[in-house]
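Pilot study result, target chain (190 residues):
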Amino acid sequence: MKKKVLAFLTGALFVPVLSQGAEIGLKLGNAQLEWSDGDNTTLDGYASVYFGKSYSITPLISIGPFFEIGYGKKEIGAYWCIGYGLCTVDLTYTTLELNGKVSLTPVPLVEIFGGAGVSYNRFGLDAKDYYTGQNIGTVTDETGSGFQGFGGAQLNISRFGIGVEYKYKKVNTDSIDAVSHLTLTLSLRF
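Predicted structure:
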């Protein structure tokens, strides 16, 4: 039964990517965590992959669902891990998002877009062996839901696109209130 459910979900997620109007892409940039106490932490890097499908409602406007998986981290430093020894600790951020996107093409090749969505987020302190870099485990982590809004612009040449996107996300965790992303977007359309 589990295999059938997994096969159905995989098909439901990837079939839109293989059809007309589908888009897959990569986002590279940074993310900043806003802590509940008012401090901010900028991660060393952030990357995500996304896919979705746009439906034209007029010659200039399209809408559609998009799914995104993202990951970012910041190296915190070296510590003595109790029961293990010397280790390095990373602050990691992982997100799974489902977004609705509206795109406007005011002139050929240029797309302006925006949207909103819901997400599931994980923030963790993950330990690695200081000498080998092998994963030891998670020191602590928090998970919570989120709601995000985003906007950006993209230059589309044939099937390829390059653009920028800003995203602001409110999250429901004890330690972190929000996350903001500024990314370069690279995409391929079918």
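One observation from the pilot: Residues 2-189 form a domain with the Porin fold (CATH 2.40.160.20). A full batch analysis is planned for the follow-on phase.
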